[in-house]
Amino acid sequence: MGLGHSSRTPQVLIMGLDSSGKTTLLTQVLTGHTMDTSPTIGFNVGTLDLDKKNSLTLWDIGGQKTLRKNWKYYMDDVKALVFVVDSTDKERLPEAAEALKRVLSEEKVKGVPLMVLANKKDLPNSMTIREISNQLNLTVLEDRLWQIQACSGQRGLGLNQAFTSVNKMIKKS
């Protein structure tokens, strides 16, 4: 794989609060396996081949509070944002909403499509897509393509569909 390849492959940023399941989800979508993960300091990156013609470079960046101020350094040249939410963690949803609002206010990602992944939907007491979308104020987003989708990083449910949708949104925008 030459250096030129990476610039042609759309860059997708996977962000969200710590413990929302970003690394588990990335590992699952890239390898089809689940592994024990530890908090991400910095980032993980991999290329997801959707089909013969389409692939995405996925950047999973650490979500701890101290690391969120660094998110803006990963935003150059990003073609889509994937914001992961732990759909069982009602208490931290306002914090997630605040983090997402900050991200979307960055000039570098103006108009960049957004996919919100409501992760851990396989667990009991997970919130509905509607609850999450209301809490995150997604309905007021204008000038931006966005979708929200339920998934399970552990089980791999909904991930391929989600990234196929991300690819379609990139092509539309």
Automatic annotation (TrEMBL):
This is ADP-ribosylation factor-like protein 11. Belongs to the small GTPase superfamily. Arf family. May play a role in apoptosis. May act as a tumor suppressor. Mg(2+) binds at T23, T40. GO terms for molecular function: GTP binding; GTPase activity; metal ion binding. PROSITE patterns: ARF. GTP binds at G16, L17, D18, S19, S20, G21, K22, T23, G63, N119, K120, K121, D122. Keywords: GTP-binding, Lipoprotein, Magnesium, Metal-binding, Myristate, Nucleotide-binding. PANTHER family: ADP RIBOSYLATION FACTOR-RELATED. InterPro entries: P-loop_NTPase, Small_GTP-bd, Small_GTPase_ARF, Small_GTPase_ARF/SAR.
